[in-house]
Fold:
Amino acid sequence: MKNLLLILFLTFPFVAKSQVWVNKGAVWHYQWSGVSFGGFHKIEYEKDTMIAGKLCNKLTPLDYRFTTNEKHEIVPLGNFKMKSQYTYVNGDTVFYLVNNKFYVLYNFGAKPGDTWNIGVDTNAYKCSKSFVKVDSIGTININSKAYRWISLSTLPNSSMGLRGKIIERYGAAEDYLFPTERNCNTNMVVDFTAYTFSCFQDENFPLYNVLNKDCEYLLKLGVEEKKAVVEVYPIPTRDILHFRNFGDNIWDIRIYTISGWEVYAQKTKLTELDLSDSKDGVYFLKAADSAGNVILKKVIKIK
Structure:
């Protein structure tokens, strides 16, 4: 009996602290924006598969991409299957496959100041091996349960990196799920893609939606509907946005930030909209009437 109690005592702390990783049915959504394009990545758990003796989760991203035409209308470009990623968990650590070798992706047992090699070594942009550092740690309550988090930064001269808070239940909460490119060449200006976490869920984890919006709201903004012959100008604008040819219909007008927040909603026959109090940046405008006419525009507010 004493031996049994000793075994239980020694193993209990490990069980209590062991990493909780994703289950079947896992789906992530990360919004992204670049210079000419934007959209979201939908990462889905496909299946379990054995690689080098490790039972791995196969995670496959789909890139839903949008752009705008010369009239600043939002144009869906379709979705594109990206390279699958493979992860497995051992204790507090999530590993991922890089060039046929497993490296540490996240270590939730790490302490502030700890570093690890994320497995990417390249001379692109004069960068080389990639290391991340733990800046801080803590816990967060999601869906009535407490989960650990670590906050990471990328060490100088790394070609790839991770940034911000990483939560043990699903991963990156501020940047992208996997490492993204970095630039070490101070003589070169590079516009990298910016990522923002929006949603996660799996079979045992209810939807966690930090935007409180549809995880795929851009698909609704970019749906093919009957286009209205209405002018919206000037784009970009410093203050007043004008509408021409609205006719006598009452329009449901909504404006969203690039992250999907609704900042304006009104049903009206308006001919102009004052954006002088709005922050500078890119917005999406959607207007529709009861007859099914629709306007989809990218609006740029400048100083």
Notes: The domain at 225-301 is CATH 2.60.40.1270 (Immunoglobulin-like). Residues 4-16 have pLDDT under 50 and may be disordered. The chain is about 5% helix and 55% strand. The CA atoms of residues 125 and 187 lie 10 Å apart.
